[in-house]
Structures are given as C-alpha cells and as structure tokens.
Design a protein that fits this description.
The structure is a single chain. By secondary structure, this protein is an alpha/beta fold. 32% of the residues lie in helices and 26% in strands. The strands form six sheets. Strands 6-9-10-3-11-12 form a six-stranded mixed beta sheet, sandwiched between helices. Strands 18-21-22-15-23-24 form a six-stranded mixed beta sheet, with helices on both faces. It is globular and about 70 Å long.
Length: 517
C-alpha cells in the first residue's frame, strides 16, 4: 500500500439527501485523504451515486457540509466542482453521440485564440494524455460508433483534460473487459502516485481488495462503516454491504441439454464503422434447451453485433437464424419477441423507456395481452398489480414503487427491472448480455440462481459476458469470439482462465489443436 498523507482533501460531513418517498443519503460522513484510492461499496440503491452527485454539484443536500482542505465549500453545479478540481466519470456516460470523440473531450473546456477554436492544440494535449495513461481511442470516430469500453476511456480523458485532482469513478469497470479493467486499475494507481485522490464506486469485491486503500460501506442510505482494505476480506465486506452472508460461488448441477432451440448457420452482420468489413463473419452454433452457452471475448470483437443480428436490432448480411424451428432471419423484432427474451447490453438505449414509469416498462412487451388491455384501453389496476409482484420478487428498489419514473432509479435497480421483466416472459430462449453489469453481490447471487433455475426448467440461455469469473462459473459451454469469428468452443470444466484468455486474444484457435468449434 502507498504511504498516504494523513490530511483529508475532501470531507463530506452529515450529508442528507431526500427524493420523493426515499432518503437516499441519511446523515453520511465520508473523508477522502490526499493520494488515496477510497472505495464506496453498497447494494443497488444504497445511495452511492447520489452521494457522489452531491459532491459533483448535480444535487444539493438537505443537510450537511462539504470541506476541501479543511475549508467549507459550496458546490452549486458541476462547474463549481470543476473549479475546485473535482471530476467525475458517471455510470451512464454524459456524451453527445453524434459528436466525435475529440469534440466530446474538449466540450466546455475548449482552447481558443482570438475567438477561434484551437483544435490542433487540443488534439495534441489529448494524444499526450492518451499515450501517457494507455487510454487509446480514435479521436475522429463518432461516439455512437464506438464500444461502451471506448466511451469509458473518453469520459476519463475528458476528466484528465480538465486537470482535476479529485477523481470520482462511478462503476468504472462495469462495461470493461478483464484486460481493460487491469489497465484501469494500473492507471488509477498511477493517478494516486501522482498525488491525485480517487473516490471509486464499485460492486466488485476483487477490484476493491486489489486497488483500494480504504472502503466505506453504505446500506439503505446509511453509512455502515469505513475499514482499511488490508484489515478486511471479501466475505466480511459482502456481509457489511448486504447485511447477511452471501454465497460468492455459483451452485449448479450438470446440464441436461435437450432439443436445439437456436440454430445459427453462417450468420454475418456488417460493421457500422468499417463498411467493407463484417463485424460478425460466417458464425455458426447451436443453443439447446436446458443449457447455458456463453459467448466470451474481449469487447469489440463482434459480440454486440451478434446479439443485434439475433434479436433483429441489426440486419444480417448472410446466413440463417432458426429459432424453435422457425426461420427468423428476416423477421421483425416483434415477431422474434414471441420466442426470445432479451436482456440488452445498453439498458438505457434498448432496455427501458426512461421517462415511462416502472410499471409501464414492466409491460412493454405484454400490454397487448387480454390480461392488460380491453378494446385498446390499458387495465391500469392489472398493470400495477403485475409490476408490484415483480418488484417484490426481484427486490427492485424505487422511491415510489410502480409509479417511479425509470430515469430516477439507480442503474442497478434499472437492470433488475429489465431482468425481472424478461425472465418472467417464460420464452424458450433467453439472450442475456452482461446481465449482472452494475449489480451488487446479493443481486448477482440472485440473478445467477435465476438463470440456472431457468436452464433447469428447460429453457435455452445464451449468455454474453465480459466477466471471466461469470463465464467460467455459469456456462455449460463457452464460445470464444475474436474479430467477428468463433475461434474456439471450450468446456469450462476442462479449460482454465489462462487458456480462455489465449483464445480471447487471438493467440490460439480451435484449428490449431484445440477443441473443434
């Protein structure tokens, strides 16, 4: 661990923040030392993001004070926070999709001379920072065309360009690959060595144990305590966070595969960024009833486009997709939705209508059923009762229950709402993309049990995950994607994380003596 100076650079004293129906932060005190990495741990909806949003000026607290270097400061908006040297990478990125990467990074902090924008200077500064911290991105690409992992890098570069000394990372690794996570951890350590102070929200106990100096645990809006990382362990932290012992390993019996539910034969999907190349190139595989097949790979190797091709979000350029014996290669999304549930990678873009209520989001694919409508009129009582049932079953926490606007909920609870809706549809195939992204250990434990239970009930599960632990523990078969192709099919019981990593990096292929895909 680093030798840290004892003085506090930031003190948040007795912070209370309320929203309709909920006290998000209840008399919380948090102290950040200069040059330390301080983790903020808690369940979904515990108030972590809210507390950091108070520090960044996005929310005003009902009570409490903030001090920087011992002096009380007032932070009315993010501009005040930036002026105090506080930067934040948000869980849901604050980027303009139609702008280029460079334009997003310099937006609001442009270098000008005599009223003219000096993009060349800005580009040079960003390139230097990018090289220095290993955060390489295509500065001329539009944000809408780059992966979420790359968008994460854009947000970090945006913060670094403003020379911030206090860096807030809200769930920074939720969308990153294992390799990118290792790089980010190294970058964070480098920041701390340079004297920057980091507040780091995470649910991932491995990362907290590896990189944080101290951990503050929140539960249901209250501070449970602050501990030195060297004096604790993962099980103790998970108990503090959830309030009960948590099973950190997935328990499941052997799979009993049945009939083929999904048959993909030679599917290709064009690339959005390179018009002459395919993002998915001549891919073939099957998923059977009663098994969990996981697609593993480093982000950006075609997994996203593969799912888009299966669910109808992108048109395929070749091959066939057969689901439950029906050729759905050219079917509409609504037609495909009769056979498959989809837990999407981007919960905001494809999972929820953010300005709809929670109950409206829960019936997005079901509102046409006679149970929920009569002669075109929605039966609001039925919708509310159904939403309430799912909220209780999946412990979806929200200030106003079924009538809560989805946008106001924490990211983890938005994810739980999508998972509840999709699993409850009881269709033959579940396509689950990063299903536990942004979830706490208690929720991950529950979701894993649900997916295993659905498998055991005879449903086919196609899991796409960047979490190697999740890939190894949850899947019955692993398909590895590299540069748009399936380069290996592995049995998790007979392979190692190291071998899986070789396939993911393209250093090994099935044709070179591995198992046949």
């Amino acid at each position: 661990m680093r030798n840290m100076q004892a003085e506090n650079i930031i003190e948040m004293l007795h912070i209370t923040k309320e929203f309709p129906g909920i006290i998000a932060n209840d008399d919380i005190t948090l102290q950040l030392r200069k040059g330390e990495i301080h983790a903020l741990l808690g369940e979904n909806g515990a108030g972590k993001s809210t507390l950091m949003s108070v520090l960044f000026g996005l929310y005003q607290p009902e009570a409490g004070e903030i001090r920087k270097n011992g002096k009380t400061v007032r932070i009315d908006d993010p501009n005040d926070a930036t002026a105090l040297g506080i930067g934040m990478v948000h869980q849901h990125f604050k980027l303009i999709e139609v702008f280029t990467v460079l334009d997003n990074i310099i937006l609001g902090a442009e270098t000008t001379r005599m009223g003219f924008l000096q993009k060349r200077e800005a580009r040079r500064k960003v390139e230097e920072l990018s090289e220095r911290y290993g955060l390489k991105v295509d500065l001329d690409a539009k944000v809408e065309d780059i992966t979420v992992g790359m968008q994460q890098r854009v947000e970090i570069l945006k913060m670094l360009c403003r020379d911030n000394e206090i860096l807030i990372f809200d769930e920074p690794t939720a969308v990153l690959t294992p390799q990118e996570i290792d790089e980010l951890m190294a970058t964070m350590r480098e920041f701390a060595k340079e004297g920057k102070s980091i507040l780091f929200i995470s649910h991932k106990l491995n990362e907290i144990m590896a990189v944080a100096d101290r951990v503050t645990v929140l539960r249901k809006g209250k501070c449970i305590g602050t501990v030195e990382t060297k004096d604790t362990d993962k099980q103790s932290l998970s108990n503090m966070m959830v309030g009960r012992p948590v099973q950190l390993e997935v328990e499941k019996g052997p799979a009993k595969p049945g009939e083929v539910v999904l048959h993909v034969d030679g599917m290709s999907v064009p690339s959005r960024t390179h018009r002459k190349r395919s993002a998915v190139n001549d891919v073939s595989f099957d998923v059977r009833a009663g098994e969990i097949v996981c697609v593993a790979g480093i982000d950006g190797n075609g997994q996203t486009e593969l799912v888009y091709g299966l669910t109808g979000l992108e048109k395929t350029s070749g091959g066939t997709v057969t689901l439950c014996g029906h050729d759905i290669s050219h079917a509409s999304i609504r037609q495909r939705n009769r056979y498959l549930s989809h837990i999407p990678e981007d919960r905001h873009k494809h999972g929820l209508i953010l300005d709809f209520t929670l109950e409206q989001n829960m019936v997005l694919q079901k509102y046409r059923e006679p149970r929920f409508q009569h002669l075109g009129f929605i039966k609001e009582g039925e919708v509310r009762a159904y939403a309430q049932q799912l909220i209780e079953q999946y412990d979806v926490r929200s200030g106003q229950g079924p009538i809560t606007v989805a946008r106001s909920m924490s990211g983890g609870n938005q994810q739980k709402a999508i998972i509840a809706r999709e699993i409850d549809r009881e269709l033959p195939l579940i396509v689950a993309v990063q299903p536990t992204r942004g979830l706490d250990v208690g929720a991950i434990e529950y979701i894993h049990k649900q997916l295993v239970a659905e498998r055991d009930r005879g449903r086919a599960v196609l899991l796409v995950s960047l979490e190697l632990d999740e890939v190894m523990s949850l899947s019955d078969r692993i398909l590895v994607m590299y540069e748009g192709e399936i380069v290996g099919e592995l049995d998790p019981k007979k392979t190692s994380v190291q071998e899986l990593g070789l396939y993911m990096a393209g250093a090994k292929r099935a044709a070179e003596g591995g198992e046949s895909a």
